[in-house]
Design goal:
D-Maltodextrin-Binding Protein, domain 2; 2 domains; 5-stranded mixed beta sheet; 11 helices; signal; Tripartite tricarboxylate transporter substrate binding protein; BUG; Bug_dom1
Length: 324
């Protein structure tokens, strides 16, 4: 039978262990709503997918996951908030995407180190990018697009969701290969740029598939997609590879938090978001926007971000990219 001193030491050890245990192990995380910053206006494909993810993950987490839209600055305001104001307690998260990874290499004063200033939680999915033009306009195919650009230097305007976004850089690479001069017209979000083409403000949109309803409605014509294979939804649109360019552009994104998050909290969030990502309801939303699955668990997502940072740094140097 243990002595009184032994029992007392055991009780103190147990108490100390309980005090040292992280909050999530005691059922205290989350004990209030979680904020998920979406750095785009409501209505776009990423907003729809992340809103669905937030609603579904709340069922697992037992607390609401509230989406907060913070558009502007090419979709980097969420990252800015994480690095300047958010606590690493798991209650403030944001979408992580390629413009955030790229930004330190295209500005004079890097705002963050993407490999060390965030806690990368999970990779989710990407986009089906493509170029769409006004259905009754002069361009009916990619060949027409190139021919018009060559015959009218500096007159072919294209819209994207922001300066130095993945789609912006992809079009500039295509223009450089064809030796044509295009005029970039950035909008705050892909759905806004698609409407601008339909109304005649700009000649084409190069962005994610928020243009899809207007293509299906007959207002826009899709002249190419940037996925590895043709889209089952738009089988008439060739891929960039079919057009002679060895390019596949999907721009995967995920969810990250501030640096220094508790690994247990990170794991709990990852598991809840993964369950939501694989839920048929979220699969349906991704299918609506033709968004390819690009799931990465936490460790692999961190590795992906590190590899992508090296690539973006090399491309920024190669193309001499600067936005300030």
């Amino acid at each position: 039978m243990p002595s009184a001193g032994t029992s007392r030491r055991a009780v103190l050890a147990l108490a100390g262990g309980a005090l040292a245990a992280p909050a999530f192990a005691q059922g205290r995380f989350p004990d209030r709503p979680i904020r998920l910053i979406v750095p785009w206006p409501p209505g776009g494909s990423a907003d729809a997918q992340l809103r669905s993810l937030a609603e579904l993950s709340a069922k697992t987490l037992g607390q609401p996951v509230l989406v907060e839209n913070r558009p502007g600055a090419s979709g980097t305001l969420g990252a800015q908030f994480l690095t300047t104001q958010a606590k690493p307690d798991g209650y403030t998260l944001a979408q992580m995407h390629m413009s955030i990874v790229r930004r330190p290499y295209i500005v004079r004063t890097p705002p963050w180190d993407v490999t060390s200033d965030f806690t990368h939680i999970i990779g989710l999915c990407g986009w089906m990018f493509g170029i769409a033009v006004k259905a009754d306009g002069p361009i009916r195919s990619w060949a027409d697009f190139v021919a018009y650009a060559r015959a009218n230097p500096g007159r072919l305007t294209y819209a994207t969701s922001g300066i130095a976004t993945t789609n912006h850089l992809a079009v500039e690479e295509l223009a450089a290969r064809e030796k044509v001069e295009l005029v970039h017209v950035p909008y705050r979000a892909a759905n806004e740029s698609a409407v601008a083409v339909a109304s005649g403000e700009v000649m084409c949109v190069a962005d994610a598939s928020s243009w899809a309803p207007l293509v299906e409605g007959g207002q826009l014509r899709l002249i190419c997609v940037w996925t590895a294979e043709r889209s089952p939804r738009f089988p008439g649109a060739p891929t960039l590879r079919e057009l002679g360019y060895d390019m596949v552009v999907t721009s995967p994104y995920g969810i990250s938090g501030p640096k220094g998050m508790d690994p247990g909290v990170t794991r709990l969030l990852h598991d809840a978001f993964k369950a939501a990502l694989m839920d048929p309801a979220n699969v349906a939303v991704r299918g609506q926007f033709d968004m390819p699955l690009e799931y990465y668990p936490t460790a692999e997502y961190q590795q992906f971000i590190a590899r992508r940072a090296e690539y973006e740094q090399a491309m920024a140097k190669k193309l001499n990219l600067r936005i300030d």
